[in-house]
User: Fold this.
Amino acid sequence: MKPLAGLIKVYIATVIALAAITTTALAEKISVLYVDGQNNHNWAAMTPYMKVQMEKTGLFKVDVITSPPRAPRPPKNLNESQQKQAAKAAEQIRKIFKTKWDEFRPPFSKYDVIVSNYNGEDWPKPVQQSFEKYMKNGGRFIVVHAADNSFPNWLEYNKMIGLGGWGGRTEKNGPYVYYNDQGEIVRNSQPGRGGSHGPQHAFKVIVRKSEHPITKGMPTEWLHAQDELYDSLRGPAENMDILATAYSNKSKRHEPMMITIKYGKGLIFHTPMGHENGKSIQCVGFITTLNRSAEWLATGKVTQALPKNFPTKTEVSLAK
Assistant:
């Protein structure tokens, strides 16, 4: 009976150990919160796709919070009677939307990483203040594509994202920042609007910091699927590091495509890639970049191996 008792003890110990490992693994999943709800891009299709791609790694637990929609504008060319009716309806809508915005309070502090797929109305002041506090105290933040168009008049947000576009941004918001043909970083304070892009097309991403955990192992050059190549972004650009660029035929500059920014104790990853069309967010390079950046922000390292079907210098690769 003694050998049997010993075996039972070993079996029980093994079960307990495996349970502990499983529990630890579940507890250690990186918590991510996507914020969307308004965007000049199809956020309703983008967010679910990016969420699934993150969850496929087994590393992340992903939630989504969606803001109230933008209030509809009354139609034009109304007669006097119709204008009065429209004004009454608009007032009722404003009250409803105010209630919805009063309820919109993302619990930033509960998450390891926040991802913005939002480009719309200003968040309420309490939400802005809550997000600033989260970031200054060590929060982690990912900015995807048009999220860098948001909040042109929110100074702290502009410091977080480093560079932004549109929304009336000009030299008053900060310099253009890019690489020149000699491989030097340029901070250009000339007058001009912030934010532009040409027709969508596949373009080559050039890795500038190959030893960073996000880019480590990536080809020095790889072909990103059809996307809007943002150019002429400008902003405070403080405590900013450019990991990768892409050459814009429109601006004739090597524009930042992967950026890290320090803000207080917080840390940010910003990519202008990721337009709403299927190809851009299906690009294996984009997905890999997004997932690696989330892991790096949360843990300081990247354990995800580069996919075998990662894009090459000449070939786009789309996730199935």
